[in-house]
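Revision sheet: structure tokens.
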Amino acid sequence: MTGVAAGPKRGIDGEDVGKDSMSQAAVPLETAYGYSPPTVSQFSVFLTNKVGKLFDLVEAFDGSSCHICALSVHEASDHAVVRIITNCASEARDLLKRESLPFSQRDVLVVEIGDGKTLASMCLCLLAAELSIHFAYPLMLRDSGAPTIALAVDDLTLAGQILRRKEFRLLGEADLPAKHE
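Predicted:
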């Protein structure tokens, strides 16, 4: 498998919406209809289940300005799927292609937990809308130090709208740190 660049983001009304332009901007609740939430690209890298393969993957990012901000490993008997989020999706995509690593790419929500916003309250908001969380894992690198979680859900736009209405902070790629601390 290889990564495929996603097309333009579209709001509920079909209008093009840029992903990075909305990451920090406050969206008034009355104009949230048609809002496409900020998302980040997640890469699912497929590795043979052999000693040293995970090391080879993370080492490939060491000499790069593209850093791994989140990592999740799902192991099976003959292969592993390593989900990563980086601070620069285009550079990560190029690096994975250069290393001849099979991968897929999808958008996920990144939600900041804190300031009275708990993991349980986030889950309850999504449950109330009957949205399923397919998987979730924490981010390792964040400038603010606030707990942050990556979420794959049934409907990114609806989940993003709901979480924003409940005053959760959603992050885009531009909100991820540019370098290691």
